[in-house]
Specification:
Blueprint: H1 10-22, H2 26-36, H3 50-67, H4 71-75, H5 78-88, H6 93-112, H7 120-123, E1 128-132, E2 148-152, E3 157-161, E4 169-173, E5 181-191, E6 194-204, E7 215-219, E8 230-241, E9 252-253, E10 259-260, H8 266-273, H9 276-305, E11 307-308, E12 317-318, H10 323-352, H11 356-384, H12 397-408, H13 413-425, H14 447-471, H15 477-510, H16 515-534, H17 536-541, H18 547-565, H19 568-573, H20 579-583, E13 605-606, E14 609-610
Parallel strand pairs: 1-5, 2-5
Antiparallel strand pairs: 2-3, 3-8, 4-8, 5-6, 7-8, 9-10, 11-12, 13-14
């Protein structure tokens, strides 16, 4: 008798792919957040003013906090913080922003620096935490901030001062909206006139109504997207006690009033002070991944129930039946899986520790590449949903603007990629792919060969950067960097592609034989071939592709698009989006047309005046 192995059911296959996207322990890691966003307080609100929406943001923050068993435990767990951003991002970008600041940057920094501070006000949200680092004149060069905290020996504390307009803290949510605020302020520690670098100081900012004496808070103009109380904040000789300094081995004031540090370099002291920004990068990545998945799921659903006339008067067809519509969504699906896999790869490596600067660099590279890809995916999905997706009640438009915040927050993408490019440029040249037997090009059906091609592209771009730098005038560092930066940045992008491809390969190998593995393998090859096709000339010149293979690449890509498109609804199911979330996006439902016939819909107005049901 021959034993038979039952193939996985459709539901099992979906669960397997969900595990690929969210991790093996996805129910434990993500279940709380999926349940939270399914509850009534997180349903899409009726039409409200910006101030009402801001108030709702802080109301939701309190609901979230009440549901936690421990805010401190959340703040100390980067994986849980990432999950928070992954699920709250598509629901309420403003809430995601203020929750990330409070739990990750504020509470997380306090916990990381130790001490015996009483955190009960912050854990119970009697005071909301915020983070004041960047200034009007200092963004990505935050190590050069000019706010000062001068040690006062007589009072044994620090006097905070904003020396000029350019040193005002820029963008933090420091108004009294939502409740009293306390901030961690990045300021230059001055002791007897000596500048010891930038440290964090715990500073009360407002009560429930207004800024505290010596603190000036002014609301900035409204930012596009979800409203957050972004402000300019400055200090006029604000005194805080010695316990306000978040000190440690990187720097402290002793009982004798003298400064000491185990780190000689002031920049490294600053990086130690704001180490939480790395966890912030991971959170921005998670938010972008969650928003991209949500918009793609909605676009796939909408494409399936938006019917248009068929050719020459034939039966009506769903718009997704057209290659021009499902092609971009299939490519987006391959990219979204790659984004999710790279996010988890970066998170796992950083959380494990032991890889130091390399793990932090991968976090930075992933943050830049994933948030940029999220913007492309979200915009593509918005276009595929047409004018419907421009309406605020359909939820997609605020994610188009929201992802811009993730691109800029926790280090502007171009700046952090430029830093990574410089580090990788001066490192040993990355190893290229091994040649296939016989020294010629390999098989385009072989995912291992595709992965080696992506690695070769990384080597090619950094090789070009080194060549260009070598031709630039010696003794002129700026000219040498300018000559190399273009190809070096392309090398960072290729590095992200390679890392994502390796994560794809590991995920495919880990799955059992069956439909889930087949689907993931198709996505893996589509992702790789899309990138290889864009650089086929470089690979042809390097002797790694033949002319025949280059000519055949478009057909290979089309075959994979057809294969992936056939399973788009099932692949979108693997995102595990709660039905309550999808119900908040009218165009995600097959009955979306009925929403336009609902006289009680909150968005219905007549010349600015709400139309009563009996007036229609």
């Amino acid at each position: 008798m021959t034993a038979t192995i039952d193939s996985p059911s459709a539901e099992q296959s979906t669960d397997l792919l969900t595990g690929v996207l969210l991790g093996d322990n996805f129910r434990r890691e993500h279940g709380f957040w999926q349940r939270l966003i399914s509850t009534e307080p997180f349903r899409r609100p009726d039409r409200r003013t910006a101030e009402e929406r801001l108030a709702l943001t802080y109301e939701r923050l309190r609901v979230l906090n009440d549901c936690l068993d421990s805010g401190a435990r959340l703040a100390a767990d980067p994986r849980a913080l990432a999950a928070l951003h992954e699920w709250l991002g598509p629901v309420d970008p403003a809430l995601t922003t203020v929750a990330g600041i409070h739990y990750s940057l504020f509470l997380g920094s306090l916990l990381d620096h130790g001490g015996d501070r009483d955190l009960s006000d912050f854990l119970r949200l009697r005071r909301i935490g915020t983070f004041l680092c960047t200034e009007v004149a200092h963004g990505n060069d935050a190590a050069a901030v000019e706010t000062t905290a001068e040690y006062d020996r007589e009072r044994d504390g620090f006097v905070l001062r904003t020396p000029h307009a350019g040193a005002q803290k820029f963008m933090p949510n420091t108004s009294p909206a939502g409740g009293p605020k306390t901030g961690l302020v990045a300021a230059r520690l001055l002791v007897d006139g000596a500048d010891h670098g930038v440290f964090l100081f715990l500073v009360p900012l407002t009560d429930a109504v207004q800024a505290l004496p010596g603190v000036r808070v002014r609301r900035l103009p409204t930012r596009t997207g979800s409203p957050v109380d972004h402000c300019l904040t400055s200090f006029d000789r604000v005194f805080v006690g010695r316990a306000a300094l978040l000190g440690g081995d990187h720097g402290r004031i002793g009982a004798d009033g003298e400064f000491s540090s185990a780190i000689d370099n002031r920049r490294r002291r600053f990086l130690a002070s704001i180490a939480r920004v790395t966890a912030g990068k991971i959170s921005m990545t998670a938010c972008a991944v969650g928003c991209a998945r949500a918009t793609l799921a909605v676009a796939v659903r909408y494409g399936g129930h938006r019917y248009i006339s068929g050719p020459r008067g034939s039966r009506r067809l769903p718009v997704i039946a057209h290659r021009s519509h499902h092609g971009p969504l299939a490519s987006a699906m391959a990219t979204v899986f790659a984004m999710s896999l790279l996010h988890r790869r970066a998170l796992d490596r950083w959380e494990r520790g032991g890889e130091g600067e390399e793990a932090e660099r991968l976090v930075a590279v992933a943050k830049g590449w994933i948030t940029w890809q999220a913007r492309s995916v979200i915009v593509e999905c918005r276009e595929r949903c047409g004018a419907q997706a421009l309406l605020e009640n359909n939820g997609m438009s605020e994610l188009v603007t929201g992802v811009e915040g993730a691109i800029t927050a926790e280090g502007d993408n171009l700046a952090i990629h430029a830093k990574a490019a410089a580090e990788m440029l001066f490192a040993a040249a990355p190893a290229g792919p091994e040649s296939s037997p016989g020294g010629g090009p390999g098989d385009l059906d072989d995912p291992d060969f595709l992965g080696r091609l992506l690695a070769e592209l990384e080597r090619i771009w950094f090789g070009r950067a080194r060549e260009r730098m070598g031709l630039a005038p010696h003794g002129d560092p700026l000219a040498r960097w300018n000559a190399a930066s273009g190809p070096a940045l392309r090398g960072v992008e290729a590095h992200a592609h390679r890392q994502a491809a390796e994560a794809y390969a590991e995920a495919v190998t880990a799955l059992p034989e069956g439909p889930a593995r087949d689907r993931l393998g198709e996505l893996q090859r589509l992702f790789a071939l899309d990138r290889i096709a864009r650089a086929s000339g470089d690979l042809l010149a390097a002797g790694l592709l033949t002319g025949e293979q280059v000519n055949g690449l478009p057909d290979r890509v089309e075959e994979l698009i057809t294969a992936v498109a056939a399973h788009l609804p099932d692949l979108a199911e693997s995102f595990a989006l709660p039905p309550e979330l999808l119900a908040d996006w009218p165009i995600a439902g097959a009955d979306y047309v009925d929403a336009y016939d609902d006289p009680g819909a909150a968005w219905q107005t007549d010349g600015g005046r709400a139309t009563a049901p009996g007036e229609r």
